[in-house]
Amino acid sequence: MPDTDVLVVGGGPVGLAAAVEARRRGHEVVVLEPRTGTVDKACGEGLMPGALRLLHAWDVDPAGHPIAGISYRSPAGHVDHRFRDAIGRGVRRTVLHDALRERAATLGAVTVTGRADDVRVTPAGVEVAGISARHLLACDGLHSPVRRLVGLEAPARRGAGRADGRRYGLRRHHRLAPWTDLVEVHWSPVAEVYVTPVAPDLVGVALLGPRGASLDDALAALPELAQRLAGAPAGPVRGAGPLRQRSTRRTAGPVRLVGDASGYVDALTGEGLRVGFAQAVAAVATLDDPAAYERAWWAATRDYRVLTSALVAWAASPLRPTIVPLARRSPGLFAAVVERLAA
Ligand SMILES: Cc1cc2nc3c(=O)[nH]c(=O)nc-3n(C[C@H](O)[C@H](O)[C@H](O)COP(=O)(O)OP(=O)(O)OC[C@H]3O[C@@H](n4cnc5c(N)ncnc54)[C@H](O)[C@@H]3O)c2cc1C
Protein backbone atom coordinates (compact mmCIF):
# COMPACT_ATOMS: atom_id res chain seq x y z
CA MET A 1 0.00 0.00 0.00
CA PRO A 2 1.45 3.43 -0.88
CA ASP A 3 1.83 5.89 2.01
CA THR A 4 -0.59 8.34 0.39
CA ASP A 5 -2.86 8.83 -2.64
CA VAL A 6 -1.33 12.12 -3.75
CA LEU A 7 2.18 13.38 -3.13
CA VAL A 8 2.48 17.09 -3.88
CA VAL A 9 6.11 18.09 -4.45
CA GLY A 10 6.48 21.80 -3.65
CA GLY A 11 4.52 23.70 -1.05
CA GLY A 12 4.26 27.00 -2.92
CA PRO A 13 0.82 28.48 -3.68
CA VAL A 14 0.03 26.05 -6.49
CA GLY A 15 1.17 23.00 -4.51
CA LEU A 16 -0.90 24.07 -1.52
CA ALA A 17 -3.88 24.79 -3.77
CA ALA A 18 -3.53 21.29 -5.24
CA ALA A 19 -3.38 19.86 -1.71
CA VAL A 20 -6.56 21.73 -0.73
CA GLU A 21 -8.38 20.60 -3.87
CA ALA A 22 -7.24 16.98 -3.43
CA ARG A 23 -8.34 16.89 0.22
CA ARG A 24 -11.72 18.35 -0.74
CA ARG A 25 -12.11 15.45 -3.15
CA GLY A 26 -11.29 12.95 -0.42
CA HIS A 27 -7.71 11.98 -1.31
CA GLU A 28 -4.97 11.43 1.25
CA VAL A 29 -2.34 14.10 0.63
CA VAL A 30 1.29 14.64 1.60
CA VAL A 31 3.07 17.89 0.65
CA LEU A 32 6.86 17.70 0.36
CA GLU A 33 8.51 21.12 0.75
CA PRO A 34 12.14 21.83 1.71
CA ARG A 35 11.50 25.22 3.30
CA THR A 36 9.86 25.53 6.68
CA GLY A 37 7.62 28.38 7.82
CA THR A 38 6.24 31.09 5.60
CA VAL A 39 7.73 31.17 2.10
CA ASP A 40 8.29 34.46 0.24
CA LYS A 41 9.14 34.79 -3.46
CA ALA A 42 9.65 37.41 -6.18
CA CYS A 43 6.12 38.03 -7.42
CA GLY A 44 3.99 40.98 -8.51
CA GLU A 45 1.41 39.72 -5.98
CA GLY A 46 -1.63 40.60 -8.06
CA LEU A 47 -4.41 38.01 -7.82
CA MET A 48 -6.57 38.35 -10.91
CA PRO A 49 -10.33 37.92 -10.33
CA GLY A 50 -10.21 34.29 -11.51
CA ALA A 51 -7.53 33.44 -8.92
CA LEU A 52 -9.47 35.13 -6.14
CA ARG A 53 -12.65 33.30 -7.16
CA LEU A 54 -10.90 29.93 -6.82
CA LEU A 55 -9.40 30.87 -3.45
CA HIS A 56 -12.85 31.80 -2.20
CA ALA A 57 -14.23 28.48 -3.46
CA TRP A 58 -11.60 26.83 -1.24
CA ASP A 59 -12.57 29.07 1.73
CA VAL A 60 -9.27 30.89 1.54
CA ASP A 61 -9.59 34.66 1.93
CA PRO A 62 -6.17 36.31 2.37
CA ALA A 63 -6.05 39.95 3.42
CA GLY A 64 -4.83 42.43 0.85
CA HIS A 65 -5.88 45.44 -1.21
CA PRO A 66 -8.62 45.41 -3.87
CA ILE A 67 -7.52 45.48 -7.49
CA ALA A 68 -10.17 46.95 -9.76
CA GLY A 69 -8.32 46.77 -13.07
CA ILE A 70 -5.17 47.39 -15.06
CA SER A 71 -3.52 50.61 -16.20
CA TYR A 72 -0.86 50.77 -18.95
CA ARG A 73 1.26 53.87 -18.60
CA SER A 74 4.05 55.62 -20.46
CA PRO A 75 5.35 59.18 -20.17
CA ALA A 76 3.07 60.02 -23.13
CA GLY A 77 -0.15 58.98 -21.37
CA HIS A 78 -2.11 56.05 -19.99
CA VAL A 79 -5.06 53.75 -20.62
CA ASP A 80 -7.10 52.10 -17.86
CA HIS A 81 -9.51 49.20 -17.85
CA ARG A 82 -11.65 48.39 -14.80
CA PHE A 83 -12.74 44.74 -14.58
CA ARG A 84 -16.38 44.55 -15.71
CA ASP A 85 -17.96 42.39 -13.08
CA ALA A 86 -15.28 41.09 -10.75
CA ILE A 87 -12.52 42.27 -8.54
CA GLY A 88 -8.99 41.05 -7.91
CA ARG A 89 -6.75 41.53 -4.93
CA GLY A 90 -3.13 42.47 -4.26
CA VAL A 91 -1.87 40.07 -1.59
CA ARG A 92 1.60 39.75 -0.06
CA ARG A 93 3.06 36.35 -0.92
CA THR A 94 3.67 35.65 2.74
CA VAL A 95 0.00 36.31 3.55
CA LEU A 96 -1.13 34.10 0.66
CA HIS A 97 1.25 31.32 1.69
CA ASP A 98 0.09 31.37 5.31
CA ALA A 99 -3.59 31.34 4.28
CA LEU A 100 -3.18 28.39 1.90
CA ARG A 101 -0.95 26.48 4.30
CA GLU A 102 -3.45 26.86 7.10
CA ARG A 103 -6.34 25.74 4.88
CA ALA A 104 -4.44 22.69 3.61
CA ALA A 105 -3.54 21.70 7.19
CA THR A 106 -7.12 22.21 8.41
CA LEU A 107 -8.36 19.90 5.66
CA GLY A 108 -5.85 17.25 6.76
CA ALA A 109 -3.00 17.55 4.25
CA VAL A 110 0.26 16.42 5.87
CA THR A 111 3.39 18.47 5.23
CA VAL A 112 6.81 16.81 5.26
CA THR A 113 10.01 18.85 5.22
CA GLY A 114 12.20 17.50 2.46
CA ARG A 115 13.27 17.78 -1.13
CA ALA A 116 12.63 15.70 -4.23
CA ASP A 117 16.10 14.71 -5.43
CA ASP A 118 15.03 11.52 -7.11
CA VAL A 119 11.76 10.15 -8.52
CA ARG A 120 11.29 6.37 -8.68
CA VAL A 121 8.31 5.06 -10.62
CA THR A 122 7.03 1.85 -8.99
CA PRO A 123 4.28 -0.64 -9.93
CA ALA A 124 2.01 1.07 -7.36
CA GLY A 125 2.84 4.62 -8.41
CA VAL A 126 5.87 6.61 -7.38
CA GLU A 127 8.39 7.02 -4.58
CA VAL A 128 10.12 10.26 -3.64
CA ALA A 129 12.22 11.05 -0.56
CA GLY A 130 11.08 7.79 1.05
CA ILE A 131 7.36 8.58 0.51
CA SER A 132 5.32 6.29 -1.74
CA ALA A 133 2.22 7.59 -3.49
CA ARG A 134 -0.21 6.63 -6.22
CA HIS A 135 0.11 10.04 -7.89
CA LEU A 136 2.73 12.77 -7.89
CA LEU A 137 1.80 16.40 -8.56
CA ALA A 138 5.03 18.26 -9.31
CA CYS A 139 4.43 21.84 -8.16
CA ASP A 140 8.11 22.64 -7.63
CA GLY A 141 8.23 25.91 -9.51
CA LEU A 142 9.94 27.57 -12.47
CA HIS A 143 13.13 25.45 -12.35
CA SER A 144 11.28 22.24 -11.40
CA PRO A 145 13.73 19.47 -10.47
CA VAL A 146 10.95 16.90 -10.99
CA ARG A 147 10.37 18.11 -14.57
CA ARG A 148 14.04 17.38 -15.26
CA LEU A 149 14.18 14.11 -13.30
CA VAL A 150 11.27 12.55 -15.21
CA GLY A 151 12.52 13.74 -18.62
CA LEU A 152 9.86 16.37 -19.34
CA GLU A 153 12.19 19.36 -19.55
CA ALA A 154 12.16 21.00 -23.00
CA PRO A 155 15.38 22.57 -24.26
CA ALA A 156 15.52 26.33 -23.63
CA ARG A 157 14.42 28.43 -26.58
CA ARG A 158 15.64 32.00 -26.84
CA GLY A 159 12.79 34.02 -25.40
CA ALA A 160 11.89 37.45 -26.64
CA GLY A 161 13.82 40.20 -24.92
CA ARG A 162 17.04 42.11 -25.08
CA ALA A 163 20.66 41.18 -24.25
CA ASP A 164 20.81 37.35 -23.98
CA GLY A 165 17.17 37.13 -25.07
CA ARG A 166 15.86 36.00 -21.69
CA ARG A 167 13.72 37.91 -19.24
CA TYR A 168 13.99 38.10 -15.49
CA GLY A 169 11.88 39.50 -12.68
CA LEU A 170 12.64 41.54 -9.59
CA ARG A 171 10.39 42.88 -6.90
CA ARG A 172 10.60 45.08 -3.85
CA HIS A 173 8.08 46.76 -1.56
CA HIS A 174 7.54 50.38 -0.66
CA ARG A 175 6.00 51.40 2.64
CA LEU A 176 3.33 53.91 1.62
CA ALA A 177 -0.43 54.07 1.16
CA PRO A 178 -1.53 52.90 -2.32
CA TRP A 179 -2.64 55.80 -4.51
CA THR A 180 -4.75 53.61 -6.82
CA ASP A 181 -6.79 50.42 -6.94
CA LEU A 182 -5.37 49.55 -10.38
CA VAL A 183 -2.29 47.50 -11.15
CA GLU A 184 -0.13 50.04 -12.96
CA VAL A 185 2.20 48.74 -15.67
CA HIS A 186 4.77 51.46 -16.44
CA TRP A 187 6.60 50.98 -19.73
CA SER A 188 10.20 52.22 -19.61
CA PRO A 189 12.36 51.94 -22.74
CA VAL A 190 13.85 48.59 -21.67
CA ALA A 191 11.74 47.13 -18.87
CA GLU A 192 8.24 47.06 -17.46
CA VAL A 193 7.69 48.19 -13.90
CA TYR A 194 4.41 47.24 -12.37
CA VAL A 195 2.97 48.45 -9.18
CA THR A 196 0.45 46.49 -7.14
CA PRO A 197 -1.26 47.72 -3.97
CA VAL A 198 -0.98 44.87 -1.44
CA ALA A 199 -1.98 46.40 1.92
CA PRO A 200 -3.30 49.73 3.26
CA ASP A 201 0.31 50.85 3.81
CA LEU A 202 2.27 48.82 1.26
CA VAL A 203 2.77 48.66 -2.50
CA GLY A 204 4.75 46.04 -4.39
CA VAL A 205 6.95 47.10 -7.29
CA ALA A 206 8.01 44.43 -9.79
CA LEU A 207 10.37 44.80 -12.71
CA LEU A 208 10.39 42.58 -15.78
CA GLY A 209 13.20 42.87 -18.27
CA PRO A 210 16.54 41.60 -19.56
CA ARG A 211 19.28 40.20 -17.36
CA GLY A 212 20.96 42.97 -15.41
CA ALA A 213 18.04 45.43 -15.57
CA SER A 214 17.77 47.26 -12.26
CA LEU A 215 14.78 48.80 -10.55
CA ASP A 216 16.62 52.05 -9.93
CA ASP A 217 17.69 52.37 -13.58
CA ALA A 218 14.15 51.67 -14.75
CA LEU A 219 12.71 54.19 -12.29
CA ALA A 220 15.15 56.82 -13.53
CA ALA A 221 13.28 56.65 -16.85
CA LEU A 222 9.92 56.93 -15.04
CA PRO A 223 10.29 60.13 -12.99
CA GLU A 224 6.65 60.44 -11.96
CA LEU A 225 6.63 56.94 -10.49
CA ALA A 226 10.10 57.39 -8.98
CA GLN A 227 8.85 60.50 -7.17
CA ARG A 228 5.87 58.67 -5.71
CA LEU A 229 8.07 55.85 -4.43
CA ALA A 230 10.98 57.99 -3.23
CA GLY A 231 12.33 57.26 0.20
CA ALA A 232 10.01 54.39 1.04
CA PRO A 233 11.70 51.09 0.05
CA ALA A 234 10.82 48.36 2.53
CA GLY A 235 12.58 44.99 2.62
CA PRO A 236 14.97 43.27 0.22
CA VAL A 237 14.87 43.02 -3.57
CA ARG A 238 14.04 39.47 -4.68
CA GLY A 239 14.64 38.09 -8.15
CA ALA A 240 13.57 35.19 -10.37
CA GLY A 241 14.35 33.90 -13.82
CA PRO A 242 14.94 33.25 -16.56
CA LEU A 243 11.17 33.35 -16.77
CA ARG A 244 10.48 31.38 -19.93
CA GLN A 245 10.49 27.63 -19.19
CA ARG A 246 9.05 24.81 -21.23
CA SER A 247 8.03 21.20 -20.79
CA THR A 248 7.69 18.60 -23.57
CA ARG A 249 4.54 17.12 -21.99
CA ARG A 250 2.73 17.55 -18.69
CA THR A 251 2.48 13.88 -17.74
CA ALA A 252 4.88 10.96 -17.28
CA GLY A 253 3.28 7.85 -15.80
CA PRO A 254 1.91 8.84 -12.37
CA VAL A 255 3.60 12.28 -12.53
CA ARG A 256 1.81 15.53 -13.48
CA LEU A 257 3.48 18.91 -13.91
CA VAL A 258 1.39 21.68 -12.36
CA GLY A 259 1.87 25.46 -12.07
CA ASP A 260 5.21 27.03 -13.03
CA ALA A 261 6.73 23.53 -13.09
CA SER A 262 4.70 22.80 -16.24
CA GLY A 263 6.24 25.76 -18.08
CA TYR A 264 6.01 29.52 -17.90
CA VAL A 265 5.91 32.35 -20.41
CA ASP A 266 6.29 35.61 -18.52
CA ALA A 267 4.86 37.59 -15.63
CA LEU A 268 3.91 40.55 -17.84
CA THR A 269 0.20 39.76 -17.73
CA GLY A 270 0.14 38.92 -14.00
CA GLU A 271 -1.24 35.48 -14.66
CA GLY A 272 0.86 32.83 -12.93
CA LEU A 273 -1.37 32.18 -9.95
CA ARG A 274 -4.70 32.14 -11.77
CA VAL A 275 -3.39 29.73 -14.38
CA GLY A 276 -1.55 27.62 -11.77
CA PHE A 277 -4.66 27.27 -9.60
CA ALA A 278 -6.70 26.23 -12.66
CA GLN A 279 -4.08 23.57 -13.44
CA ALA A 280 -4.24 22.32 -9.84
CA VAL A 281 -8.00 21.83 -10.16
CA ALA A 282 -7.57 20.05 -13.50
CA ALA A 283 -4.76 17.81 -12.23
CA VAL A 284 -6.79 16.61 -9.25
CA ALA A 285 -9.89 16.02 -11.39
CA THR A 286 -7.94 13.83 -13.86
CA LEU A 287 -5.58 11.85 -11.60
CA ASP A 288 -6.28 8.57 -13.39
CA ASP A 289 -6.45 10.00 -16.90
CA PRO A 290 -3.20 11.56 -18.17
CA ALA A 291 -4.62 12.39 -21.59
CA ALA A 292 -7.48 14.30 -19.94
CA TYR A 293 -5.00 16.30 -17.88
CA GLU A 294 -2.96 17.11 -20.97
CA ARG A 295 -6.12 18.40 -22.70
CA ALA A 296 -7.23 20.34 -19.64
CA TRP A 297 -3.75 21.88 -19.29
CA TRP A 298 -3.82 23.15 -22.87
CA ALA A 299 -7.29 24.59 -22.34
CA ALA A 300 -6.43 26.21 -19.00
CA THR A 301 -3.24 27.84 -20.29
CA ARG A 302 -4.18 28.73 -23.89
CA ASP A 303 -5.15 32.40 -23.48
CA TYR A 304 -2.20 33.01 -21.17
CA ARG A 305 0.31 31.38 -23.52
CA VAL A 306 -0.98 33.05 -26.68
CA LEU A 307 -1.59 36.57 -25.36
CA THR A 308 1.45 36.76 -23.08
CA SER A 309 3.82 35.38 -25.76
CA ALA A 310 2.47 37.91 -28.26
CA LEU A 311 2.82 40.82 -25.84
CA VAL A 312 6.37 39.83 -24.81
CA ALA A 313 7.40 39.53 -28.48
CA TRP A 314 5.91 42.97 -29.19
CA ALA A 315 7.66 44.41 -26.14
CA ALA A 316 11.01 43.10 -27.39
CA SER A 317 10.56 44.41 -30.94
CA PRO A 318 11.38 47.85 -32.33
CA LEU A 319 7.61 48.50 -32.07
CA ARG A 320 7.78 48.51 -28.25
CA PRO A 321 7.09 52.29 -28.04
CA THR A 322 3.78 51.76 -29.86
CA ILE A 323 2.25 49.53 -27.16
CA VAL A 324 0.77 52.15 -24.84
CA PRO A 325 -0.26 54.60 -27.61
CA LEU A 326 -2.00 51.79 -29.51
CA ALA A 327 -3.76 50.58 -26.35
CA ARG A 328 -4.90 54.17 -25.76
CA ARG A 329 -6.27 54.44 -29.28
CA SER A 330 -8.03 51.06 -29.00
CA PRO A 331 -9.51 50.96 -25.48
CA GLY A 332 -12.02 48.30 -26.56
CA LEU A 333 -9.24 45.95 -27.62
CA PHE A 334 -7.26 46.66 -24.45
CA ALA A 335 -10.37 45.95 -22.37
CA ALA A 336 -11.05 42.69 -24.22
CA VAL A 337 -7.51 41.42 -23.62
CA VAL A 338 -7.56 42.38 -19.93
CA GLU A 339 -10.98 40.73 -19.44
CA ARG A 340 -9.77 37.57 -21.19
CA LEU A 341 -6.72 37.25 -18.97
CA ALA A 342 -8.52 38.16 -15.75
CA ALA A 343 -11.38 35.67 -16.16
C1 LIG B 1 8.67 39.12 -10.93
C2 LIG B 1 7.45 38.25 -10.97
C3 LIG B 1 6.20 38.82 -10.86
C4 LIG B 1 5.05 38.02 -10.87
N1 LIG B 1 3.84 38.61 -10.73
C5 LIG B 1 2.72 37.86 -10.67
C6 LIG B 1 1.46 38.45 -10.40
O1 LIG B 1 1.33 39.66 -10.20
N2 LIG B 1 0.36 37.64 -10.36
C7 LIG B 1 0.47 36.29 -10.56
O2 LIG B 1 -0.56 35.58 -10.52
N3 LIG B 1 1.65 35.70 -10.79
C8 LIG B 1 2.79 36.45 -10.84
N4 LIG B 1 4.00 35.85 -11.03
C9 LIG B 1 4.04 34.39 -11.21
C10 LIG B 1 3.88 33.65 -9.89
O3 LIG B 1 4.79 34.15 -8.94
C11 LIG B 1 4.09 32.17 -10.12
O4 LIG B 1 3.30 31.75 -11.21
C12 LIG B 1 3.73 31.35 -8.88
O5 LIG B 1 4.63 31.61 -7.83
C13 LIG B 1 3.78 29.87 -9.21
O6 LIG B 1 3.56 29.13 -8.05
P1 LIG B 1 4.11 27.66 -7.90
O7 LIG B 1 3.56 27.16 -6.62
O8 LIG B 1 3.89 26.93 -9.17
O9 LIG B 1 5.71 27.84 -7.78
P2 LIG B 1 6.56 28.49 -6.61
O10 LIG B 1 5.86 29.61 -6.01
O11 LIG B 1 7.91 28.75 -7.20
O12 LIG B 1 6.68 27.33 -5.54
C14 LIG B 1 7.46 26.19 -5.78
C15 LIG B 1 7.75 25.49 -4.47
O13 LIG B 1 8.45 24.28 -4.74
C16 LIG B 1 9.47 24.11 -3.79
N5 LIG B 1 10.51 23.25 -4.37
C17 LIG B 1 11.47 23.57 -5.26
N6 LIG B 1 12.25 22.51 -5.51
C18 LIG B 1 11.76 21.48 -4.78
C19 LIG B 1 12.14 20.12 -4.63
N7 LIG B 1 13.17 19.58 -5.27
N8 LIG B 1 11.41 19.34 -3.77
C20 LIG B 1 10.35 19.85 -3.11
N9 LIG B 1 9.96 21.13 -3.22
C21 LIG B 1 10.65 21.95 -4.04
C22 LIG B 1 9.96 25.53 -3.50
O14 LIG B 1 10.61 25.62 -2.23
C23 LIG B 1 8.64 26.32 -3.54
O15 LIG B 1 8.05 26.43 -2.27
C24 LIG B 1 5.15 36.62 -11.03
C25 LIG B 1 6.42 36.03 -11.14
C26 LIG B 1 7.56 36.84 -11.11
C27 LIG B 1 8.91 36.19 -11.22
Automatic annotation (TrEMBL):
<feature type="domain" description="FAD-binding">
    <location>
        <begin position="3"/>
        <end position="57"/>
    </location>
</feature>
<dbReference type="InterPro" id="IPR002938">
    <property type="entry name" value="FAD-bd"/>
</dbReference>
<keyword id="KW-0560">Oxidoreductase</keyword>
<dbReference type="InterPro" id="IPR036188">
    <property type="entry name" value="FAD/NAD-bd_sf"/>
</dbReference>
<dbReference type="GO" id="GO:0004497">
    <property type="term" value="F:monooxygenase activity"/>
</dbReference>
<protein>
    <submittedName>
        <fullName>FAD-dependent monooxygenase</fullName>
    </submittedName>
</protein>
<dbReference type="InterPro" id="IPR050407">
    <property type="entry name" value="Geranylgeranyl_reductase"/>
</dbReference>
<dbReference type="Pfam" id="PF01494">
    <property type="entry name" value="FAD_binding_3"/>
</dbReference>
<keyword id="KW-0503">Monooxygenase</keyword>
